[in-house]
Amino acid sequence: MKKKLTAEFLGTYFLVFAGPGAVVIDQITQSLTHMGIALTFGLVVTALIYTFGHISGAHFNPAVTIGFFLYGDMNKRDAIAYVVVQLLGAILASMTTLLLFGNVAKLGATLPRGTERQSFGLEFILTFFLMMIILGSAVHGKAVKSFAGLAIGATVGLEAMFGGPISGASMNPARSIGPAIVSGHLEHLWIYIVATILGAIAATFVYKFMHE
């Protein structure tokens, strides 16, 4: 279990360091653009899945871990441990970004560009389909699991491209909690915790219904 928790900690750390970090770098240099930021998220998720997937399952996301728990793929104790180390990794990553660059671009925190209702709905839908693709590509018995990293990474990149300008395209409570806590911008954080978890839960139950 220690190896799994280490993998989840390191994976979440690098995901939050590279993804929201790309937002910070773009603010400083104006060189990445929105598409570059979205590609950063997709590529880092792909790389991390192939690096740590065989060790921990490569969740790096409390909403995904909750989904796997409800799916019956892990027990309650392990799920709680996963979530704790994911949050610690995310917070430490944001602290690293703060030390390197200062509180630039709110450390890449996810904040609504429109109404809270828009962002809540978008985060629910994005996380729903991300969880469906994770279950379909990495869990289903007939899935070609060697391509799961590409499918999931491509989904994250795609959803970040079109959802990012409105909601920030979090799809991951840890990704939002780390920058929000360290930058001090907690005002909309509830959206990125509640909507993403509900999206993952809904996807898990729909997926189970489709494959009973």
Please specify the SSE layout and strand pairing:
Layout lengths: L1 H28 L3 H24 L5 H10 L4 H26 L14 H23 L9 H20 L5 H11 L5 H22 L2
How far apart the termini lie comes to 30 Å
Report the total helices: 8
Sheet with the most strands, sense and barrel status: none
**Category from helices, strands and their pairing:** mainly alpha
| Residue windows where pLDDT falls under 50 for at least 5 positions | none
The tally of beta strands, per DSSP, is 0
How would you sum up the global shape?
globular
Helix content: over 70%
Q: Beta-strand level of the residues, as a percent range?
A: under 5%
The average pLDDT value, as a whole number, equals 94
Secondary-structure element string = HHHHHHHH
CA-atom Rg in angstroms: 16 Å
Question: What's this model, at a glance?
Answer:
This protein is an all-alpha fold. Helix content is 77%, strand content 0%.
Q: How would you portray this structure in words?
A:
The chain has 212 residues and is mainly alpha-helical. The chain is 77% helix and 0% strand. It has 8 helices and no strands. It has helices spanning 2-29, 33-56, 62-71, 76-101, 116-138, 148-167, 173-183, 189-210. Helix 1 packs antiparallel against helix 2 and helix 3 (62-71) runs antiparallel to helix 4 (76-101). The radius of gyration is 16 Å and the shape is globular.
